[in-house]
Design goal:
Distance between the termini: 26 Å
Number of strands: 13
Order of helices and strands: EHEHEEHEEEEEHHHHEEHHEHHHE
Structural class: alpha+beta
Number of helices: 12
Shape: globular
Strand content: 5-15%
Largest sheet: 3 strands, antiparallel
Length: 309
C-alpha cells in the first residue's frame, strides 16, 4: 500500500538488535528482514534508509528511540509497524488537517461493531449517522501520524498512574475499561509489559491531548502469526474481528473532514471499547455482518487471505 500513497515519502526502517541468546534461526530471519524490506523499496521506487541496531533495546525502548530520532529531523512523521497496512487515503487525510493545526496526532485505525455511519447507544438505538471525524481519547498504534509538539516530553519509562485527572477525563467510558488500563499500568511499572503504546496513551491522557480519528477505518493488522496472537488463548478465527478489517481507500468528502460533537465522540469511544474488549463471540458475530455488508462498498479494500465464514 505504501507504493500507492499520494504524497512523496521516504521510508526510515528501524530494526532492533538481536537478543544475546538469539538462536541461529532468529539471526537468519533478522538478516532476511533487512534484505526483503530493502528489495521491496527498490522495486517500488521508494527512497529509504535502513537502521539495524547493534544491540537489543526491546520493544518499548526501540520504538521510543526510533521515533525520537526522526523528530530530531522532521516536524511530523507517519509511523507504521511492519505488520500493518495503512490506506493510501490516510496521508491525504492527515495533511488536510495539518494545514489547520500545528499540533496534531491522528489514528488510522478504527474499531467498530457497526458500519462507519452507524453507532448504537446503550438502548440499542442508532444515535450516530454522521460521517464526520472525531477527537478520541483512545490512541491506536496500528498506523498513526504525529507532530513533534505532541511527542515532546514523552518518556516511556515514567511510572504510569491512573490519576484522578485521567479518571475524570474518562468518566464516560466503562469502568471495566478503566480498571483494565490500570492493570496495564501496573504491569508496565513492574517490567512485566514492554509496550511503548500504553505509556504513550497515559502520556497523552496526562497532557489532555486528544487524537483525531477518521470515521472510516484506514488500517488493518496483517500479522496472523505475529506477537498479537502469541499470548492469546482465543482461537485465530475469533480474533479475526480484531485484526482484519475493511480499509477505506475512497475519496475524502468535506463531511468526512468535519469534526463531530463531543457526544458523538463519546459514543464512538464506547463502541470501540465494546468491540475490542467485548465477548469474543459476540464481537466476532457483529464483525461478520459488518464485513459482509461492506464487501459491497467499492471504497473498501479487502485482503485475499482473509477468510471469514
Amino acid at each position: 500500500m505504501l507504493g500507492k500513497w499520494k504524497i512523496p515519502i521516504k521510508l526510515y526502517f528501524f530494526q532492533d538488535g538481536l537478543p544475546n541468546n538469539a538462536s541461529c534461526s532468529q539471526a537468519d530471519r533478522h538478516s532476511r528482514v533487512k534484505s526483503v524490506a530493502s528489495q521491496l523499496c527498490r522495486d517500488l521506487g521508494i527512497p529509504f534508509e535502513y537502521s539495524s541496531r547493534d544491540r537489543h533495546l526491546g520493544l518499548r525502548n526501540n520504538v521510543f528511540t526510533s521515533v525520537s530520532q526522526l523528530f530530531e529531523i522532521f516536524q511530523h512523521v507517519f509511523c507504521v509497524e511492519d505488520d500493518v497496512c495503512v490506506s493510501p487515503a490516510f496521508p491525504n487525510y492527515c495533511v488536510q488537517h495539518l494545514t489547520q493545526q500545528r499540533s496534531l496526532i491522528v489514528n488510522a485505525n478504527r474499531f467498530s461493531t457497526r458500519s462507519p455511519q452507524e453507532v448504537v447507544g446503550l438502548n440499542g438505538a442508532i444515535i450516530d449517522n454522521q460521517l464526520s471525524s472525531w477527537y478520541s481519547n483512545i490512541f491506536r498504534s496500528w498506523g498513526w501520524f504525529c507532530t513533534r509538539s505532541v511527542w515532546e516530553g514523552f518518556n516511556p519509562f515514567t511510572r504510569l498512574d491512573m490519576s484522578d485527572y485521567i479518571t475524570k477525563r474518562l468518566s464516560h467510558l466503562p469502568a471495566q475499561y478503566l480498571k483494565l488500563m490500570a492493570g496495564y499500568a501496573k504491569a508496565c511499572n513492574a517490567g512485566l509489559n514492554d509496550s511503548w503504546a500504553f505509556p504513550f496513551q497515559f502520556f497523552l491522557w496526562s497532557k489532555g491531548q486528544k487524537i483525531l480519528s477518521p470515521c472510516f477505518n484506514m488500517s488493518t493488522h496483517i500479522g496472523v502469526n505475529g506477537s498479537h496472537f502469541s499470548n492469546s488463548n482465543i482461537s485465530i478465527s475469533k480474533n479475526l474481528h480484531y485484526h482484519y478489517q475493511p480499509v477505506y481507500d475512497g475519496q475524502l468528502s468535506a463531511e468526512m473532514l468535519d469534526i463531530g460533537s463531543t457526544d458523538v465522540a463519546n459514543y464512538r469511544e464506547i463502541d470501540e471499547i465494546r468491540f475490542i474488549f467485548g465477548a469474543a463471540g459476540s464481537s466476532f458475530n457483529k464483525f461478520k455482518s459488518v464485513y459482509l455488508r461492506e464487501m459491497r462498498n467499492s471504497s473498501m479494500i479487502f485482503f485475499p487471505f482473509v477468510n471469514v465464514h
